[in-house]
Amino acid sequence: MTLRLPIHWLLNYKVADLIFSVDFVIPWQKVLNTILCFFLVVYKG
Fold this sequence. Notes:
The protein is 67% helix and 0% strand. By secondary structure, it is mainly alpha-helical.
């Protein structure tokens, strides 16, 4: 039996793990803005 998980599921799990981690000190709003800008550039380009 093999355990196959979608890539996006793993990424979402890791992101949630970071968000709820005590050591997560990066402002989440800044991270969201950076990701949003990155995707806008990728999709427009």
